[in-house]
Each structure stands twice: as C-alpha cells, then as structure tokens.
Design brief:
By secondary structure, the protein is of the alpha/beta class. The protein has 11 helices and 19 strands. Strand 18 and strand 19 (446-453) form a beta hairpin.
C-alpha cells in the first residue's frame, strides 16, 4: 500500500480482512440519519443482500476517448484498462453529460442533466434537494463510499452538499483536482496524505471495500481520479515515461492511473467478490488532445471531441465475454441503471435524462425512448483550488475550529432565487438521435443551427442543416421540448 501516515499516528493496531489481507482501521464511519422527508420519498424493495451486486464507479478527469492503448494509441501504455476491455462490455459511443467536470459528476450522482440541478459550470454545487445514487441505494441496504475528486460542493463538515449530506457513509475526498501528497477531507476532517494521488484514493477505497466484504454488505464505491488533469506531478519512477513527447505529463498521469486501477481490479479478485461486482469506468469529459479525442474539438466543446469518452463495464456474473456496443449512452444513464439493478425505487423521482442500460448489459438491443440532450448554459464557473482549501481547513482544525471560516461552504446550495426564462435558450445546446446530431448555438440573440450525420461525418465538418431540413425540424422540436423541461427544473419546479 502507499504510505499514508507515520505509524505513530494510527490509534489502533492493524486489522485483517477475512481473506488475510492487511488493512488499516482508517474509516471510522459516521452515518447520516436520513430525514423523514427523504424516507417518505423512497420506497424500499427488500431483497436478500447476497443477491445484490456491488457497484464500483471509477471516473478519470480529462481522459480523452482515444487516450487508451486498446484504441491503438501510438505510445501511451494502459495495460490494465486494455485487459479489462478484452473481457468486458466496451462502449464505443459513450458520452459525458457535459464537456467539463462538475456538471458530468452531477449527472452521475442524479441521473439528470446537470442544468436541471444547477450545476451550470465547473465548481458549481449541486442542489441538496436532488436524490443521489448513494441515497437511493442506501434504502436497499447498500454501504456507500466516495473517494477522490468531489467538485459538486464543499468537503467541509457543515456543508449541505458534502459527501455525507449526499448519502455517503465514508469518504476521502477533495473539492477539485489533486496530485502528489494531497491534503484531503476524510468525513470532513482534513488529513495530509502521502503518495501518488490515484493510488492514495484506490487504497482508501479498498479499505472500505474490504470492510464491507467482511460484513457481507453490498456496497457502492465511487472513485473519482484527479488524473490526468494538471498539474502533472509524476512520481520519480514515472518521470522517465514519454520523454520528448508533447503533453508527456498528461500521458504519465494516464499510465499512473492505469496502474492504480489495476490494483483495484486485482484486489477485488483477491477478495473473491469480483463475480458479482459491477465495475464501471469512464471519463468526465473529452481529453486535451484533439488528435485522439474521437471527434471534432476537445474538452470544453459540445462537438464529439468534448463529449465522447472511453467507457468499459465489467460484471462477470452477467458479462462473461468481450462485447462492444456502438449504442449511444451517457453518464446520466449510470443512476437509473444501478437503481434498476439494485431493485430500488424512488417514489417521488424527479425527471431523469438517463435511461437504464440493463438490457444492453444483458446483451439485448437498447432502444432509447428519447434522444440525448446536451447544454452548455452560459454561466460562469467557480475556481476551486483544492490544495489551498484543504490546507486552510487543516490549519483551521489545528486551531480547534470545526471548519475553515473563510472557506466556501455552499450553505445556500439549496436556495432557489433567480428565475431563468423558460422561453429563451442561450448558449450551445445539442440533441443526439443517432446518427443525427443537431447543434443549436445562440449568441447574443443570433441562432445558428448545425446538423451532422455521425456515421458518415464523425468529425462534424459538413453541416447538413439546409439539405436535411426534415431532420433539422424534427430534432429541433425535440431539443426545444427538452430545454423547456430542463429550464423548469432549473427554476425549482420539480421540488
């Protein structure tokens, strides 16, 4: 294991899993008592815990679609991802719900387009009124843990949108990207960690997984890497990798992340729980290199290169051979998929934009009842310097304070005050009904429409809007209907 802290700081002796693996008792978990309101909103379907699969959701930060060895990258090494891709369900047309970080994370947690939950840009906090996947799964007996980049709220103990108040029993998290020797928040308490960031959070997740395995408790473990996002601080042994290559630091982070992912996968096997563990990997948005982005542009764009991401799913009990699908899927699909598999039902479920992919996982054809909508609403992001925020929290706690009084606490995250127009659709939006993808760009009242056939024009270079007017009209009607519904959610009419 990576070095965590000096041995003198451990208050208890080392423990062991039932399989003999050594563990550190690092997760004194406090569980949030669900409010009567939440409990009344959720209907629990009881099933025997042994029948329920475990869920491990892993997400990279800024890894592009083609930045994988299994896609034939000319030099980047990803042996562990490649091995999983050879024996799992590989999504070749998987999309992030947004072209940047915080919004996509909100889509994973809620199954909703991030505009609905007020995560309009990076660093924005999601609303505590929305039910998260952790809250939904807890109602059917799941233990829940979050490890790594949070970025949909504060990691301070009194924040209404920290991981605890979003349904997670245990967490080691940070508000934004992080790298070597990060300061992180463990259930609201800042700690100095030691080691490469990807391995730090994988080790933390494995402590949690091991504990739940010993108990026989089904679990949800979310692992959100801070890599390959900058600052590209490599371990000494990795600094020799990719020398002379442009963006060498970026690719070193991918290889380090691959190594940590390999350890995660191997340890799950050692615990003998892999057969009924659904392991799902993807990225939060397109990468930084247009040449390997899988389409036009890169991170930050609603063109294919900003949204199309690598994704693979392993679940040996259901998937016993390698399969590849070209069916368009999106990060918003993760929530309804896990909810259906676990047998949870959210009685007062707010409008979802994702659909369950269980039929696809089972090897059947998936026919989406609707298209996939994307929307870059023109709204400023927030800079969240995780290192500064966590160091400030650590210093405050050394002074006997429960939290950093100068930190961003998101105490008003649930407040709905600004009413957005439901008849105006500014910014860049897109509607995908494969193979057709319509872009609607509204800038200072001027509207531009672009229509592309992704089969014949994956780079979105030939605008067919004029030549294919029936497709344009149909997709535009669907997009506008969806945008009206999204604006109503943004204005709080779901709650």
């Amino acid at each position: 294991m990576a070095a965590w802290r000096s041995a003198a700081t451990f208050p208890k002796p080392l423990g062991t899993c039932s399989n003999g693996e050594t563990v550190h008792p690092l997760f004194p978990m406090f569980r949030r008592l669900a409010s009567a309101t939440l409990l009344s909103a959720l209907l629990v379907l009881t099933t025997h815990s042994s029948d329920k699969p475990n869920f491990v959701l892993v997400m990279a930060d800024d890894q592009g679609w083609g930045d994988m060895g299994y896609y034939g990258h000319p030099f980047v090494k990803t042996p562990h991802f490649d091995e999983m891709a050879r024996s799992s369900l590989r999504f070749d047309r998987f999309y992030s719900a947004a072209p940047n970080c915080s919004p996509t994370r909100a889509s994973v947690l809620t199954g909703r387009n991030p505009v609905r939950v007020n995560v309009l840009n990076h660093g924005r906090s999601m609303r505590p009124q929305d039910t998260t996947i952790a809250e939904a799964l807890k109602t059917v007996g799941y233990a829940t843990g979050h490890f790594g980049k949070w970025h949909v709220g504060s990691c301070q103990p009194i924040s209404p949108v920290n991981p605890t108040n979003s349904g997670f029993d245990a967490w080691l998290s940070t508000p934004n990207f992080f790298d070597l020797d990060p300061v992180m928040s463990r259930n609201g308490i800042a700690e100095q960690m030691m080691g490469e960031s990807s391995m730090v959070i994988v080790d933390a997740a494995l402590e949690f997984i091991c504990e739940q395995s010993d108990k026989g408790t089904p679990f949800l473990s979310i692992i959100w890497f801070g890599s390959p996002h900058s600052p590209f601080d490599a371990m000494g042994s990795d600094k020799q990798l990719y020398q002379g290559e442009e963006m060498a630091g970026y690719y070193r982070e991918i290889t380090a992340m691959d190594r940590a992912f390999g350890k995660l996968r191997n340890e799950i096997r050692k615990l003998e729980i892999h057969e009924n563990t659904l392991l799902w990997y993807c990225s939060d948005n397109g990468g930084l290199n247009t040449e390997t982005s899988g389409g036009r542009e890169k991170k930050g764009s609603l063109y294919e290169g900003g949204l199309r991401v690598p994704a693979i799913l392993e679940w040996p009990r259901r998937i016993n051979n390698s399969r590849t699908t070209e069916t368009p899927c999106v990060t918003s699909d993760i929530y309804p998929t896990l909810v259906e598999i676990a047998g949870a039902r959210v009685a007062n479920q707010f409008a979802l934009d994702g659909v369950s992919l269980l039929e696809l996982i089972n090897g059947n054809t998936l026919n989406r009842s609707t298209g996939i909508g994307f929307w870059q609403y023109p709204h400023p992001g927030r800079l969240t310097y995780a290192d500064r925020m966590m160091i400030a929290l650590l210093e405050a706690q050394k002074q006997g304070l429960e939290h950093d009084p100068n930190g961003r606490l998101d105490l008003d995250a649930g407040k709905i005050s600004k009413q957005y127009s439901e008849n105006e659709f500014p910014g860049h939006s897109a509607w995908l009904e494969f193979p057709w993808k319509l872009h609607r760009i509204v800038d200072q009242g001027e509207e531009t429409l672009e229509l592309y056939n992704l089969i014949s024009d994956s780079q979105e270079t030939t605008n067919l809007h004029s030549q294919e007017s029936p497709h344009t009209e149909r997709l535009l009607a669907h997009l506008e209907e969806w945008q009206i519904a999204v604006m109503r959610s943004l204005n709080g009419k779901d709650y």
